[in-house]
Amino acid sequence: MLLHASVSLGRHSHRKLAALGARSISTSVSQNDSAIGFIGLGQMGFHMAKHLQRQSDVPFCVYDMNTDAMSQFQAACSTSTRPNIDLASSPADLASKSSVIVTVLPESAHVKDVYTGSSGILEGIRKETLCIDSSTIDTSVSVNVSKQVIAAGARAVDAPISGGIMGAQAGSLTFMVGSQNAEDFEQAKLHLSKMGKNVVRCGDLGAGQAAKICNNLLLAISMVGTAEAMNLGIRLGLDPAVLASIINTSSGRCWSSDTANPVPGVIATAPSSKDYGGGFKTRLMLKDLGLVANAAKDTKSPLLLGSLAENIYRHIAGNQTMADQDFSVVYQWLARRSDKS
Predict the structure, then answer these.
(1) Where in the chain is the domain with CATH 1.10.1040.10?
(2) What GO molecular function annotation could you give as one example from this UniProt entry (predicted)?
């Protein structure tokens, strides 16, 4: 199912999509229209695009290498009053039809390929098009791609997201934005506010990415800490629900405890209560911690707990099943280690 798999836009994947015949799916947006284009209909992007499409009064164009993802999106969003969702054949095709482009992609390589590769966005981009990249990637890659977009006569902002799949579904995400000027930020905010509740300008190009990796550093550490505390309390005989209620009304309260508690059954809506499905995958958290490590090395910043967290998640990601489960599965990993002690 689409919503249980991350988008996988590999190098030159858009050419594979064209070979599958995506060009024949829809041609509803002409080059004279000012569409909003959205690339990346994975676990986050699918929900984000739905919110954006439903609250926008212009044509909407999407691209994903997975043709089933595009068809599902078209079926989910087409209505009797707004029947057409245009399905692009490549990033360049989408760019040629769009005055605003939003991208939500897994890794730096995907962003570089979608923007600068063969049949990429830069091959079809219009002057003054606003490109909003909500991927979480290396800051230097983000800045470099943004500068290429600007050199092509368009505009670019980096706007990574926080809030997870639950936030994407609810339209309550936080966007951390980097832009070269306030005007580009305000233009981006008009669209980002349709997908989230908090849109914050963090500074110049790349500042959004910097804020995001700092947030995810803290998130990884706090989830490990929450899992350790819950595991210890349970082994001391405490009821997990009682322990969580105490933590969540005391100084230990954090998102990892009050919203995404890692112990199954404590919070019904948390990934842990859904067999750790539908959340932020462990392998993606490990990827983000790698970005943190790179940034810390570049800035000569000590990374004590961060390095420990990265090492823990590297061990967990070595388990093929856990690698694709929500990163709160660290609780299960700790519990198993306790059983072996």
Answers:
(1) 211-340
(2) 3-hydroxyisobutyrate dehydrogenase activity
